[in-house]
Amino acid sequence: MGYDIDRFVGYVNEGLLCSICRDVLEDPLQAPCEHAFCTTCIHGWLVHHSNCPEDRQVIDVSLLRPLYRYMKNDLNRLQLHCRNREHGCEMVCSLESIDRHERECEYSQIPCSNAGCTVQIERRNLDCHLAVCEYRSRECPNGCGYTILSTEDTQHNCVAELRTELELLRSETICKVEEAKHEMESRLDSQRRHMVQKESILQNEIEELKSQISRLMSDVRSLMAVERQHRQELEQAELEKREL
């Protein structure tokens, strides 16, 4: 849907009206036949039709294009009243800037920011409403540190609240201690398994070293036996030499 034509000041060119809703174009698109429509209007039309609502020429969503620049400029220069006019806003501004104004307009109806409150209030009156809203929150005047709603004032008991908080803290502490305990036990088990694996590896390495030492000792004994044999052969050769 477009902008209500009754909001505009002065004459509005026929070419700037939506061919479907007959209001001033909002977020406009243009067909190849140069008829212009609000985006929402033409998309809704093409769900059930495949032609232009003005001249019945065949059109498709893919053929729609943005409005010509000169027409867009003419559209943006139109002057209109704020939609909150009936609430007291007297602002008249260009179509190009109306959205920005209405987002910040003091006469806009906005929801109360307090959780649980369903009141819609003018932006300019929001602070006054918040000061008396039954859903407003404040810190306990007795100094317990709790934030309470005005509707809970008669039910608030500092001692009971603090006792409940203490129980919650105690439960959380117990849970955290248990979690830390389980984590430490898990780490110890992991380290224990790692140490057992290391011990097994070291034991295997020791056995391998013992085996190597044993082979070396055997080789040494063999070499010593060969040396004795060579010495005996040399002594025998020396005796034979002397006899000769």
Automatic annotation (TrEMBL):
* Coiled-coil positions: 192-243
Which Pfam family, any one of them, does this sequence belong to? zf-C3HC4_2
Q: Does the keyword Repressor apply?
A: no
- Tell me where on the tree of life, at the top rank, the source sits: Eukaryota
Describe, by residue range, where the zinc fingers (TRAF-type) fall in the chain: 101-144
Question: Where does the TRAF-type domain start and stop, copy by copy?
Answer: 101-144
The yes or no answer to whether the keyword tRNA-binding is present is no
Q: Tell me the ranges covered by the RING-type domain, including all copies.
A: 18-56
Q: Which Gene3D superfamilies does this chain map to?
A: Zinc/RING finger domain, C3HC4 (zinc finger)
In alphabetical order, the GO MF annotations are: ligase activity; zinc ion binding
The protein's matches in PROSITE patterns, at most eight in alphabetical order, are given as:
ZF_RING_1, ZF_RING_2, ZF_TRAF
Keywords annotated in UniProt: Coiled coil, Ligase, Metal-binding, Zinc, Zinc-finger
Protein name according to UniProt: RNF41 ligase
> Where does this protein come from, organism-wise?
Scytalopus superciliaris
